[in-house]
Amino acid sequence: MHLKTSATIALTVALLAGTSALAQQRTLVFNHYMVQPAPMEAINAAIAAFEAEYPDIDVVENTFDPEGYKTSIRNFLSADPPDVFQWMAGNRMAPFVNAGQVMDISDVWAENGLTEQLASGMASMSIDGAQYGIPYSYYQWGIYYNRDAYAAVGATVPTTWDEFLANCALFLAADIDCLTTGTSALWPAAGIFDYLNLRTNGYEFHSELTAGLIPWTDDRVRATFAEWAKIVPQYVTENHAALDWQDAAALLVQGKAANYVMGNFAVSVFLDGGMTTDNLGFMAFPTINPDVVRAEEAPTDAVFVAAGATNVADAKLFMAFMARPDIQTQMNITLGQLPVNAMATVGDDPYIQAGFELLSTTTGGIAQFFDRDADAEMAKLGMEGFQEFMVLPENLDDILTRLEEARQRIYAQ
Amino acid sequence: MFPRPIAQVSRPARIAYQVALPIALILWLLPLLGVAMTSIRPSSDLAAGNYFGMPSSLAFSNYVEVFTKSPIAQYILNSFRVTIPTVIGVIVLSCMTGFALGIYRFRSNLLVFFLFVAGNFVPAQILMVPVRDLTSQMGLINTTTGLVLFHIAFQTGFCTLFMRNFIRALPRELIEAARVEGVAEWRIFWFIVVPLMRPAIAALSVLVFTFIWNDYFWATVLTTSAATQPVTAGLFSLNGQWVAQWQLVSAGSIVAALPPVAMFFLMQKHFIAGLTLGAVK
Amino acid sequence: MAQAASETRPKGWWRSNQQTITPWLFLFPGMVFFGLYVIWPIFQSIWISFYDWDGLRAPDGSTNATWIGLGNYAELWGDRAFVTSLWNNLWWLVLYLLAVPGGLAIAIFLNQTVRGIRLYKSLFFFPFVLSQVVVGLMFAWFYAPNFGLFYNLIEWVTGDGVAVLANPKLATFGIIAAGLWPQVAYCMILYLTGLNNVAPDQVEAARLDGAKGWRMLWFVILPQLRPATFIAVVVTVIGALRSFDLVSIMTSGGPFGSTRVLSYYMYEQALSEYGYRMGYGASIAVVLFMIMMVFISGFIFKMIRDERGLG
Question: What is the pTM of this model?
Fold first, then answer.
């Protein structure tokens, strides 16, 4: 359903009513979940620009809430495919690509020179050498912190893990949660794991682990968990298993927590809750092993064409449109995220700039996030294991054995 | 009557009872009262941490916000679009099946009857995948029609049980007399039996309305977008959008619950008659 | 089967066979719907459980399902999550039955004729009318850490709040408690109706004999409430095994799967965000169905006995 003002509706009705057989509007059905304020503004602007450039095309949006979309997508891709739809890259798109529900758009990539322009996103959009979607945005992960909380206990911004832990002791004494998170949806815990693993063992190890090539019982995995054990459970928000990530964000805003491992999409939530660019800080995850090359996490969002699309020609036009540097620049400024197109400009916002700095100086590799790098079932089991570890760290052996059994079963094919 | 009528016990006991009643009620409805209070609390209270004190103002605007900022009105409309055709369809089908199984004696009567009864109790999950496939192959995924068709089919089980038991208890003389007169069977159905079934139809309508309105599982399996989702599935997705905005979630929950509650209070007798059939010999 | 006597014109085939054919005609639409949407799918699900399928169909209708026979069932046997679900279902079964005596207790409490008792009865019953979504959201709020009423009550009493839904040991019980709320209301109504129909002369006679309190309840009242008890138990058992809505809304099976029940596990494996295993999910559904068939058959046998008894 279009979420537009009544003025626009009136205008559209008048237009439709006033035309005869002349204006043959082609419709382009677009399913997405950009319903939060910032994304909604960004996509509305992009669609308006698209429709202005192609007045014959009417974009019809079907919007969903982000969690519901994850189940709805498999319904509508099978039964009622739209023309274009929003989704995530990497292993998240794999089940649908392998079932033949996503259209191969390598031709759009070739015709528009996207292999150069979208080079940083190409790997995560390709399967078996063919490209399946257009990546339009990615965002860094890192640690967001409350400067006021730091000032209150006299802590300095850490660059190493040991410094971070020392600060945690200070926060604990002041009854502030050193690290907050809300794991009821499971994925925030994966963010913490990913960073601990990237910092302890490096990018190659992390890729191989998520690709199912390394046993979970390996000593290096244990090393990651050993680092994690240094902060759970005493330095992490109590009862995080019953909190949503936004509930935990409220704790950071109120100064009841000092740090939050999160993606840049959370910034608008923090600022809306009352933080300012003065007291909301961003830092890279601290170094654990100085010999390990720094790698970062930056998941990519993309749009795709459904294999069952009715209006394929216009869908491809839309794909090419979303790949353009000017469109990506505009969208990402509103989203507070980073454009994938190398020719696009990065917004002025301090957090985007910090993210851009961070990612362009990353030499170790950029991971997509645990549930996009790992197979779906493995991801679910892994994230449950992470949540369990955070609540009951003594269960580590059991968790690792279980994950290893699952890995052998899942990746055996 | 049991227990001993309160008029017959000592005065202190009677007063204790009169006092215990409202206290018990408040304790019983505590979650509901809490949610109702939260629904009129302004969001500034919640942000400041004032969860249980006196609200700083009565924010009925929360209810307005629920309607203007979310498609809840559409969800409610969808619920009606699913519930009302289902009730009509089920009543029609179960009157017919109840009539067939209740009036006529034939060999497979009990078998067919128990098929309906057993089918009513199966867990939804055993049906989930095939029904979803069937609905999608008929092109009815994400339509209210698809949901209506399923509900009519499934509720027929329970309603057949109900109608058949009801019809069996009807006096047979009228039917026998009509047959002697040579009245065709379908006329017996339409002109004699159906009017006698009115109380049962009333009771079932109310019950089925409530069950279908409150259904959540099939609403999430068969409908996916705001244009078609009934209010149960819609409320769940709004909960996902309104994280940490408990005043909106509470107001939305109360709004979603109102139609069946109103139906219940208006048609209590029928509702209870429907639920308790068979509970008394 | 009275047929019109002394008919002078020849009877048509229809007129003589009306009474045999009519029931089938009337049954036909109901049976078609029911068969198509309920009976046939049961067999289809059993069939799907022999495949390994991700549940997705290409636009041309083809799938990449592969036959694996009893492979899914073999895997279930060793699946920890499956065992947890079974245990949770057992807890549901046992604890949910508390609704029956709970409903009886409230029915007895309310079975008086004081002023306004009708309103009290309606209000006590009204949780049953709420959708499980609403009940789930209410209790999720009730248990929520920091601002939930329950959390704050416990904190006020013991000094340290308990976040029920974050605790793997307590979460299932918290959800069962939420489910009991409407279920007790339902049993209460059954028993109120039953109590209304208790033979007053038997009660008077027993009173004259000096029976009161528990003895009266156990020996005189409860036997007369047997039909109500039977229905209450059946519906409660079926409800306990089918519970899905509350688990889905309150915890999504968490924390880390500790509140999973078979119905939710099936949905998780077949249709959820990370679940692309239709065949495996179908096998879980079949197991659940088999378990329920035990109870359903028991119920049907009792009904058959009653039917035969009534002739």
Answer: 0.86
